Structures are given as C-alpha cells and as structure tokens.
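Data card: per-record layout.
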Amino acid sequence: MIKKSGRQGGMNGLVRALLAGHLTWNIPILFVLLGIMIAYIVFVKKHHRLMACFVKPLLFFIGIGLLYLSIGSPLLSISYLSFSLHMIQMSFLFFIIPPLILLGIPHHLYKKMIDLPLIRKINVFNLSPKGSLITFAVLFLFYHLPIFLTFISQQPLIQKGYIALLFMLSFRMWWPIASPNPQQRLSKQKMKRYAVQSGWVIMPACLLFIVSALLEGVSNPFLVQMTTHLCIPPDFSPVQLLPSPFNTKYDQMMAGFFMIGLHKFGLVVTYKLGRKY
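The structure for this 277-residue chain is written out next.
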C-alpha cells in the first residue's frame, strides 16, 4: 500500500513537472479575440434591429469563448496528454466553433466584412464548400497518420500553421449549412445530403484511431515530446503519467468515437440552428 501511494505521488509529481510552464494563458490571442468581440458589439449597437434577436450575439460569443479555451488556455497543453483529450480539443476547434461563429455573424456585418482586403486574401484559395470539405478531410486524415503526427509534434511552427489552415478550411466546409447569408445556404433536402456527405468524408480519420487501437496502437508523440526534458526513471514510460484507460489502445478508440460523436453533434445542432437563424 505504501509502495502504491509512493508511486502515485511520484506520478502526480511528474504530471506537475510535465505541465510546469505549459499551463499558461495566451495573452496576445486573448487581446485579439477581445478586439473582435468589441468590434462586434459596436456593430450590433449601430444596428438596433439586431438587438431583437439576442441568439446571434450569444452564438458568436460562445464560439469566440470556446476558441480561446481551445487554443489560448491551459486546456491546450492538457489536451496533449492523451489521444482522446487531443481529439476532443480538435473536434471543438473544427466541428463546433466554426458553425457557431458563422451563425453568430449578422447578415449586415457579413456584407461589410466581404469587402475587406484581408478577408478577400484569406478566402481559402476560392475553394468551393465541397472542395474545402474534401481538402480538409484529406489533410485531417494525413495529420493523424502516425509518421506525420510524430514529425509534426517535433515542429511546433509547422504544426500551428497546419492547424490554422485546417481551421480556415473548416469555415468554408461549414458554409452551406451555417453561412451568415441565409441565401447562400442549401435547401433543406440538399443540406441533409451535404451533412451525410460530410460525415462519410470525415469518417476515415475517425476510423484510423479505432483501427489502430484494434491492431496494436501507437504511442502519443505529443506526450513523448513533452516529457523529453524531464528526468524520468529508466523503467518509467511516459504513458504511465495518466491512469488507465488513457494512453492505451482504449484511449485511441475513445478518441475515434469522440470525434465521430462531436462531428455528428455539430452537424445536428448546426442544421437545427441554421433552419431558425
């Protein structure tokens, strides 16, 4: 019992050491997002008729808040501790946040935004929504291939650029269902068909984790990379930092199922909100 307590205490100490310096809030991102929210509030106040519908501002602020939690809070570092936590973070970033932000943009604000030079430059290479969906699915699958995942975990700048590209593609991917311009959204029947296509296209990346878990599983390269600077005993594996079933084949299976579930959740909620707002 004493040995178990001592080992547990050592594990907790390693977790604290692992996260030391990582559990920080990204202040520059906070100021950027606050600036966006302030500009949004100023616009809404100029158009008093929009105040009658408080749902759009609420959706926008929820989306921006979740975005900061996903990329600017200590939750980002925590998400690297296991595949399942990482995929929950990624699923929110690509399947929940973009449609919330799009649905929260009033049509009048959208018409002003599309004339901005910066918006025109980052129009994701003028890809169609289906083109963006396919491109996103391929890059998303490629990102989670073991060889590439190991490589990108060692290249923080490349990883951030890759995630930023996926994030921009995700907005275009959600456009037919959640466009700020209701006239650019698909009809009810076509919207359902697009949602089904979206589910099938994203499915391979989800199944990759499940199949890998059923075969032999792969180690978490982000966790390994984070523990390289720690003085870990020779007989201690980084995967032991979290209790079972984290960082086991079950963790990878959960990652796949979480991704499928959150993508489906995002589709259902976005479809219902898109029909109303």
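Known properties of this structure: Residues 88 and 147 are 21 Å apart (CA to CA). Confidence is low (pLDDT under 50) at residues 1-11, 229-240.

See the next section for split statistics.
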